[in-house]
Each structure stands twice: as C-alpha cells, then as structure tokens.
Amino acid sequence: MNQVFRALVIDDEPAARRLMKNLLQEYHQVIEVIGEAGNGRDAIAMVEELKPDVIFLDIQMPDLTGFEVIERLTVKPNIIFTTAYEQYAIKAFETFSIDYLLKPIKEERLEQSIAKLKQFGRHQPAIDVTGLQEIIRQFQAPQKATALPIRTGDRINLVRFENISYLEASDKYVYIYTYDGQKHITDQSLSALITKLPAHFFRIQKSYIINKDRIKEMHRHFNGRYLFVLDDKEGTRLTSGRTYHDPIRAEFGL
After folding, report:
1. Residues 89 and 187 placed together within one structural domain of the fold
2. What is the distance between the alpha carbons of residues 213 and 172, in angstroms, rounded to a whole number?
C-alpha cells in the first residue's frame, strides 16, 4: 500500500498555489493536499492545527519569510521549499532541507522532489535554519546596483531606483512608473523584481510595489486598508491589499 503524505501549499501568490495544487494532482496516490495558506501567520496556524506530513513552502512572503515560519513551528513537517533563488539554491537547499523547487516549477523537477520525499518517509530531517540563512547570505551577491535593467528587444534601459515611483503587475507584465510620468514594461514578475530592488521598496498588495521614498501621504482606508499618495508627477494614489495590513503597520510603525 502506498504511503500518502498530507500536504499544505503555502505561497502568497494565489496563481502559484493553484499551479502547485494542479501539479500535485498527478501524484494523488502519494500527496493529499489538505489545505493552503497565503501568508506566514496563517501557515503557522494551519500547520499547528492540521499537522501535515509535508509543506510546500514559499520563502518570499509579505509578513514572514519561509525561514521565520519554520522557526516558529512546534510541529516539524517535511519541508519542500519553493523559491525564485537561482545561483545559490542548489547547495543551500540540498544541504538543509528535503528539497527545493525553483520557480517556475517544472513537472520533472517536482517528480524528483516527490521521489525524495518518499525516500525520507515520515522521518523528517533536521533543518538548521541559521545555517541555511548563512549559506544563502554568503552566496547572494551584495546589492550594489543603482538601477533596474529593463530589456526591450536588443536594448537594455537602466531605470534608476530613485526615479521609480511604483511598480504595477497587470496581466502577464509588470509596469514600472517613474516620478516624471514615464512608463516601462517588463515580463519579470513582481516577486522576481522585489529581490533586485533596494530595501526602501515595499509591497503593499499583490499587484503593487512602491518606493517608500516617494510616499507623500498615508491615509487609513476601508477594511483595514491604507491609501498611499505619492509625490510623483501624477500624484498617484494606491490602495493596499487587505492581507497586507499587518506588514504595513509593522513597516511604518503604525
């Protein structure tokens, strides 16, 4: 009889959760998805309540990182990380976790992760979170860039960080708006771009990243949301997502 692993899918992007669940349907004899979570705090509560055998855990989430989720768990499921990291992922994740899946997730790579999970069974390997973070820190190149490279055909535009007002995800593209009203387009995701931006860029909802240095005013809005007024040429007004309420309060000391 096949061993069935009860699983949680944890990712702040609904589309990423849907994709993972669809991919896991091919392994229904091995994996039973019992729930999903869109942020770190919900993930912790669900893991503690449902006690899954394995979690597919995104690292970059708006409230808590995947590492912080692990540190706060008293229940210790198997971990398969999902990540956009590339250069240093292999060494770090193969050393400290059952496996990792690099986004966008490929079916053949998921098959390898499931096989590895079956080998481990329900005996979870210990995860040294501090060691994992240290390896990632060593492999991650220091952020020395001063501009965001945007490829347009054979040409690469360098958009200076200080000139960017905000970034907006729409359909399959991300639009980058500068304070003087210019607009650039890229097919990179917001999740990928946030790793290339300096610390003063902050995600206020799934579709928007803003430059905190360009905030002119903040106002409380309906249902725990906030209205951001920027100092750009258009006087842009952006509303935060409801699930970003706590991260915004923490970021701005509200």
Report:
1. no
2. 27
The pLDDT tens digits for 59-95 are: 888 888 887 888 888 888 888 888 776 544 555 555 5
Q: Residue 200 is part of which domain span?
A: 147-252
* CA atoms of 166 and 153, how far apart (whole Å): 23
In contact, 44 and 72? CB cutoff 8 Å? yes
Alpha carbon separation from 25 to 36, 77, 99, 120, 235 (Å, rounded): 14, 20, 19, 21, 46
| 151, 77: one domain | no
Q: The domain that contains 93 carries what CATH number?
A: 3.40.50.2300
In this structure, the strands spanning 99-102 and 78-83 are: parallel
Calpha distance 97→115 (Å, rounded): 14
What are the distances in angstroms from CA 40 to CA 15, 33, 43, 114, 238? Answer: 17, 18, 5, 23, 24
Output the CA angle 199-200-205, nearest 5 degrees: 95
Between CA 146 and CA 78 the distance in angstroms is: 39
* Torsion on CA atoms 162, 165, 167, 168, rounded to nearest 10: -170
Q: Which of 242, 247, 237 is nearest to 216 (CA)?
A: 237
- Rounded to two decimals, the pTM is 0.52
pLDDT tens-digit readout, 202-219: 999 989 999 999 999 999
